[in-house]
Amino acid sequence: DLCFTASSTDEVESTLRIIDRWSINNDMEINWNKTKIIKLLPRSSPVNPDSFTALYHGKLKFVRDYKYLGVMLDHKMTLDQFITQLEGRITSFLINIPRAQIKMMSVRSRRHLWKTYADCHLSYGCSILAMHPSALNKYSKKYNKSLKIALGLKKSVSNSKTYWSSGIWSPDLRVKYTFLRTMMKTRWMYGPEYMSSLPEIMVQAESQI
């Protein structure tokens, strides 16, 4: 998979020519059916993405949303669809596994089952959730609820005690750790000059963490 950001249609076109040329030279072919472009817009913008003209000889079409590496991104970066996707996994755990059956399992089995349903998909979106606190807070509520049910804890038990007893990190802590690790790895691989070219929102998120 490959993705890139650009500030103008000319930059998109020139970048695609480079990628296309490299692909031809290396006996590879771009799958244009899976190659899309999203124009990021302010949330208050009335612009309809469907009105944009396709680029690169009509091969590259604009879309409202796109699923990239397991994360559903939309043109206003609300992350609503991704949060719905994550909450759907938790709902599957709450609905499909009878609570009486959960109580019969050992704590270790409950923990493993819950991680299989609810926890594993969070790792896909940790870096982007670090830049979207409101979406993370929305997801955390159902995350905490399902974990308490899996462990057989009462609703009144504090979230901090729930995490401590289960040995599972809170969504907030996991997101911050993953994001900082990504930023540190990027800085080590590409150096300070590349870091200065990153979107401002990523730099702001790192400083807040």
Question: How would you describe what is shown here?
Answer:
- By secondary structure, this protein is mainly α.
- The chain is 56% helix and 6% strand.
- It has nine helices and four strands.
- It has helices spanning 9-25, 80-96, 99-103, 107-119, 126-129, 133-151, 159-166, 171-195, 200-208, and strands at residues 36-37, 61-62, 65-68, 71-74.
- The strands form two sheets. The chain has a two-stranded parallel ribbon with strand order 1-2.
- Strand 3 and strand 4 form a beta hairpin.
- Helix 2 (80-96) runs parallel beside helix 6 (133-151) and helix 4 (107-119) packs antiparallel against helix 6.
- The longest helix is centred in the C-terminal third of the chain and has 25 residues, at 171-195.
- The chain is elongated and about 60 Å long.
- The chain starts with 8 loop residues before the first helix and ends with a helix.
Mean pLDDT: 80
User: What structural category do the secondary elements indicate?
Assistant: mainly alpha
Uncertain spans, ≥5 residues at pLDDT below 50?
none
What fraction strand? 5-15%
**Number of helical segments with 4 or more residues:** 9
Shape: elongated
Can you summarize the main beta sheet? 2 strands, parallel
Percent helix among the residues?
55-70%
The order of strands across the largest sheet is: 1-2
Order of helices and strands: HEEEEHHHHHHHH
Rg value: 21 Å
How far the N terminus sits from the C terminus, by CA atoms, comes to: 29 Å
Q: Got a strand count?
A: 4
